[in-house]
Amino acid sequence: FNLKATFGAGCFWHVEDLLGKTKGITSTQVGYIGGNVKNPTYEQVCTDKTGHAEAVQVEYDPNEISFEELLDIFWNNHNPTTLNRQGPDVGIQYRSAIFYHDDSQKEIAEKSKRSLNDSGKHANPVVTEIVPAPTFYKAEEYHQKYFKKCGM
């Protein structure tokens, strides 16, 4: 059986591409989560008014990859210390977030965030939010597997 994990780490195209190439990930989809509008469009999310994050929801086989290993990939592939931005992308939709699906994920994510803060790896504190996963709205089809579609 597969489990779900949902991450916001800036532009969802890069995150989906990275996770999609990871052993143990059985499916990926990009979408919007954590806002206050039902079925938002990309254009609505980009206004910064819906409150949604661009996110990647994956299904993974826990016999092949653990949630802890997914978190290591998450932490090491974006800057978790910048509030509502990743590189040149600025706005609440680019926030760093872990949307947990059960108490176990919450506990593991919080412990992992504490360890990262305590490690001294980053000069600034980690601002990643760890919140329950609300409804995930799948993004428009042209966003799905975007890098593959563009031959990247």
SSE blueprint:
Layout: E1 3-9, H1 12-20, E2 25-33, H2 42-46, E3 53-60, H3 67-76, E4 85-86, E5 89-90, E6 96-100, H4 103-119, E7 129-132, E8 136-138, H5 146-149
Parallel strand pairs: 6-7
Antiparallel strand pairs: 1-3, 1-6, 2-3, 2-8, 4-5
Our estimate of the beta-strand percent is 25-35%
What percent of residues adopt helix (DSSP H or I)?
A: 25-40%
What's the mean pLDDT score?
A: 96
Specify the structural class: alpha+beta
What's the number of helices? 5
Question: Overall 3D geometry?
Answer: globular
Strand order of the largest sheet: 7-6-1-3-2-8
Terminal CA distance reads 31 Å
How many beta strands in the DSSP annotation? 8
What is the radius of gyration computed over CA atoms, rounded to a whole number of angstroms? Answer: 15 Å
Largest sheet: 6 strands, mixed
Low-confidence stretches: none
Helix-strand string:
EHEHEHEEEHEEH
Question: Which characteristics define this entry?
Answer:
single chain; 152 residues; alpha+beta; six-stranded mixed β-sheet; two-stranded antiparallel sheet; 8 strands
